[in-house]
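thread from #wetlab-drylab

HS: before we spend reagent money on co-crystallization trials with DP6, can we at least see a predicted complex? here's what I'd submit
DV: go for it
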Amino acid sequence: MTEREFISNHSYVDIERGEVKAKCSSNIALVKYWGKYTPQLPANPSISYTLTNSLTHTVLEFKKSDKLSVDVYLGDSKQDKFSQRIEKYFLSIKPYVPFIDRYHYTIHTQNSFPHSSGIASSASGFGAVALCLLEMSELFGEKLTNEQRRIKASFLARLGSGSACRSLYKGLVVWGEHSEIPQSSDLYAIPFPFEVSTVFKEMQDTVLLIDEGRKEVSSTVGHRLMEGHFYAEARFAEARKNLSVLSKILQTGDLESFGRIVEHEALALHAMMMTSTPAFILMKPTTLAVIDKLWKFREETHAHLYFTLDAGANIHLLYPEREKDTAFNFIKDELLKYTKNGNFILDKALF
Ligand code: DP6
C-alpha cells in the first residue's frame, strides 16, 4: 500500500463522547532499526520478536472540544511530556484520522513492566494508542477488514515511534522494504512471511534489569546521530544483509547462526552509539560482565543462550523453549547477581 491509500476520505458520524480500550505488546529487535529519515521511515529494514507478557494497557476517553488537547496518565500520575508528545502526534496524523482534532483526550496507560527498564514502552504504548484510534474510527463508522485494521494500526503506530509498528503482530515481524521479503514496506510492518522452523516458534526472553534509571540517550536523539555518521551507509547495508541471512536461518532452524547474527546486531547498535559525535556508552560494567559470563558458559556447555540489547544497559537473554531449564538455572545462579536488586522479567515470543 502507498501512503496516499491511508489518507481517509470516509465521512464519519459525530459522537459527543466515548471510551475505547486496547492492549499491545512490546517487541525486541533481532536486526536493529537505528537511523531514520522523515517522515519516520527506517534507514534499514528490521525484524523483531513480539513479546507476550510485556504489555501496555490503554484506555482512551474522548470528548468533543473546539481544540485538540491530550492528558496522558501513567498509572495515577499525569505525564506532561507524554501529553505534549501525543498531542503533537495526533496533529501529525490528521490526514489519516480526520476527526482527531475535534476532541479532548484523556489517556490512561499502564505498563506491565517498569518504565525505562529496557523494554520499549514507546513500542507497546504507541501500538496501543494506534489500536484505540482504529477502534474509535470504527465507532465513527469506518469499516475495515481485520487485515486492513492491522496494517493501518501499524502505519499509525510507526508515525508515533518507528519500532511500535512491529508490535501490531505476534511472532516475528518485519518492518522496512527488503528485496527478499515479499510485501515488506517502509510504511508499516508485516508478519514474517515464511514458514518458521519449530525451534523459533517459541523463544524465551529473560530481561536482566541491570540499570533501571532513565536512558541516557533517547531513541530520537540516537537515530539523529546516524545522520552523517561515518559508518552509517556500511551499517545500513550490513543490516540488510543480516536480515537476508537471518531470514534463511529462521526457516532452517540453525540456532548457532541465529545467535551469531543477533549478538552481532546488538553490538553493532552499541558500536554506532560509541562512534557517533557526541558518543554514548549505554552499556554498564555489569552489562559486559554478563556477556563475558555468558560467552564462557556457552563455550563450556554449548547451550543455545544468546543476548541482545536495546538502546540501554539491560540484557535480553534469548533461548529456545526446549533449553528453558538449563538456561534459566544458569541465569538464576550466575547472572542475577549483576542485576539491580535481582530484578528480571520473564517473557517469551510465541506464534
Ligand atoms: C534500539 O522506535 O524507539 O530499539 O522511531 O524515534 O521512536 P523512534 O525510535 P524507536 O527506536 C528503537 C530502536 C531500537 C532498535 C529496534 O527496536 O529496532
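DV: The chain has two domains: 16-191, 198-348.
HS: ok that's useful, forwarding to the group
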